[in-house]
Known about the structure:
Helices cover 32% and strands 26% of the residues. It is α+β, with helices and mostly antiparallel strands. The protein has a single domain, classed as 3-Layer(aba) Sandwich (Aminopeptidase), CATH 3.40.630.30. The protein has a 7-stranded mixed sheet with strand order 1-2-3-4-5-7-6. Strand 2 (78-83) and strand 3 form a beta hairpin. The radius of gyration is 17 Å and the shape is globular. The chain starts with 7 loop residues before the first helix and ends in an 11-residue tail after the last strand.
Amino acid sequence: MTLPTLNTAELERIRVEQAAAALGSAPARKQTGPAVVLRAPRVADGAQLWRIAKDSAVLDTNSSYAYVLWCRDFATTSVVAEVNGRVVGFVIGYVRPQAPDTVFVWQVAVDRAQQGKGTGAQLLHALLNNVAAQGVSKLETTISPDNAASIALFSSVARRRDARITKRPLFDAGVFPDSHAPEDLYLIAPTARTTQEDHR
C-alpha cells in the first residue's frame, strides 16, 4: 500500500490545526459532561489563573499577586471558564487608556484537560461581546512569531466575527532584558457583537 505524499503547505496546515486544537480555536467537539460557565473573574480565582498560566509552559507566567490583582481591577475586561466550580480557562485584558475603543488581550489560556473543546474561542467571543457595550470595537494582542496556536486562535475569532486581522512588528527582541522572543501586534476590527450560536 502506497501512502500519500504531503507537500510542505499540507504539512504546515496540519501543524497549525493541531496547534489550534490545543488552545481551543479548532472546531469544538460535541460537548459532553458538565457545562462550561463563562463569567467575570473574582479575586478568589487568581490562584487558579496563575496555575493555568504556569502549566501552559508557553505563556509568560506573571506573579501570583498579578493575577489576583487583575481579577480585582480588570474583572470587567476579563472572562473565566468554569466547570464544576473549577476554573479551566481564562482571558485577561484591559481597555487601552489611549484608545478607548480597543481592548488589549494580555493572556488567554485553557487547562490541558479542557483543550480541544473550543474553550479558548468561547472566552474571546464572550470578552468581545461584554466590552461591546463600552464602545469597544477593536481587539489588540501581541503574539511571538513561533506561537502557531495563538495565531490560529485569534485568526479563527476574526473569521467568525467577519473581521479583518492585521499584523505588524511591535517589540523587537532587543527591547527585552532577557531572551524574550519578539512580539508582533495583531489587530482585529471591527469586533461587532455576536450571539453564542454564531461561534459554535
